[in-house]
Amino acid sequence: MTPKERIKATLGFADVDRVPTLGGFLTSASQYTFFGEISKEEFHKAPYESMAKAYRSLGVDGVILMRIPQDKEGLDEYREVTREGFAAHQERFQSAEGVLAYVESLPTPEEALRQFDAAKWREEFCAGLMQRQHILGDMCWIPTQWDIVHPTFEWYNVFGYSNYMEFLALYPNAADRLFGSEVEVKRTIASIVVDVYRQLDIPAVVHIGTDICGNGGPIVNPAYLRRYYFPHIKRSLAPLHEAGFKTVWHSDGIITPIVDDILDCGVSGFQGFQWELGLRLDEIVAKRTVTGEKLIIFAGPSVTTTMYRSGEDIKAELRYIVDTAFSASGLFILPNSDLMPNIPLENIAEAYRYAADYSKSHKKS
Predict the structure, then answer these.
(1) 363 CB-contact burial (10 Å; exposed 0-12 / middle 13-18 / buried 19+)
(2) d(CA 319, CA 175)
(3) For residue 252, what pLDDT band results from cuts at 50, 70 and 90?
(4) In a 10 Å sphere around its CB, with 0-12 CB exposed, 13-18 middle and 19+ buried, how is residue 283 labelled?
(5) If 0-12 CB within 10 Å is exposed, 13-18 middle and 19+ buried, where does residue 104 land?
(6) H or E stretch covering 297
(7) How far is CA 215 from CA 17, 91, 270, in A?
(8) Is the pLDDT confidence value at 74 over 50?
């Protein structure tokens, strides 16, 4: 099967020759140069093409992210984010009341939509998709849309964590306004995504979500999210859901208390899964979408524990994932988060190779 055939068949819960694998979580120049068998000079001369070589050598079917690290490797640069960038909010927001003033200055959803140039956004989006797909060749470009198609929750990156959390607690109605302020624009973008993906024959799956959970569960009371956040998610995602597109929600931390709420928004499945926190894949894949379908699952070895261990530990975790989810869901193999620069390179190669080989003996029915 071709990568596109394998991905589309998996989205339709049909038999495939092996589980499809996804790339996007390599993070450093050393990883790209190693797997692409190129020099660092070659990488910096043609970074996207070099990235494609690396993912092709790993045998992936699709790529969800294409990130270019800075010249200097390290924890500050590997994701193109610096500590200074995270601290920039301190120059503008000093308190929850500062956040409130910002939110009160936002346009209404209808005003925001009138100001949005949908034609320009579509043109640039379409051009970007075609450019990246050309670079990837027969691998499918199925880019993460995160909160591009729905309201964000991670405003703490803008306001500062304490300011934001105090704002949520003190001004819930204003929080509702914040989350709802961009819904009509995001809903319009979701409709554009449907049209452009169909035009370009991109597999109808969109990786979405926002960091909303930690190691202890949701960082905001689920009842709060049900009242002030999830209704806006449901409305903005409606064009994707109604078009039959699969949406896969990013799930760091303990997400189990809000799994049903996320599915109720029309979401089709989940990505992430920190097994070290006690998450049970069998419990997740037993769930169904609002239309009664099996879930779409992006899952792989833990990048905080397993990927640092022996090849046998990696194989055991992959057997658990494939045995549990291959028939019970539309399963894609993807490491659960960023593959840090200090993860042994042979472990990354082994994970992708073994997932493909082991799944060849599995059938959907």
Answers:
(1) exposed
(2) 43
(3) confident
(4) exposed
(5) exposed
(6) strand 296-299
(7) 36, 30, 17
(8) no
Type and span of the H or E element at 238:
helix 230-242
Q: Which two tokens stand for residue 328?
A: 């019970």
Q: Using an 8 Å Cβ cutoff, are 294 and 255 in contact? A: no
Tokens of 249: 């929600």
Report whether 251 contacts 273 (CB < 8 A): yes
278-306 pLDDT, tens digit per residue, is: 889 999 999 999 999 999 999 999 999 99
Strands 213-214 and 217-218: antiparallel
Cα 37 to Cα 78, 154, 224, 335, distances in angstroms: 20, 37, 50, 22
Sole residue written with tokens 């068998």: 37
In contact, 255 and 281? CB cutoff 8 Å: no
Three-state SS at 214:
strand
Distance CA 236, CA 173 (A): 19
CA torsion sign for 125, 127, 131, 137 is positive
Name the residue among 276, 343, 363, 359 with its Cα closest to residue 25: 343
CB atoms within 10 A of CB 134: 11
pLDDT digits (tens, 9 = 90+) for 83-120: 555 565 566 899 999 999 999 999 999 999 999 999 99
Q: Which of 59, 122, 29 is nearest to 352 (CA)?
A: 59
DSSP secondary structure of 191-205:
HHHHHHHHHHT--SE
Query: By the 8 A CB rule, do 230 and 264 touch?
Result: yes
What single-letter amino acid sits at 244?
A: G
Q: Are 247 and 150 in contact (CB under 8 A)?
A: no
Q: Which pLDDT tens digit goes with each residue over 129-168? A: 999 999 999 999 999 998 999 999 999 889 999 999 999 9
37-46 as b/e: b if 16+ CB within 10 A:
ebeeebbeee
Residue with tokens 């990837």: 136
Q: What single-letter amino acid sits at 73?
A: E
> Which residue's structure tokens are 């879930």?
295
Write down the pTM of the prediction: 0.94
Q: Are 194 and 126 in contact (CB under 8 A)?
A: no
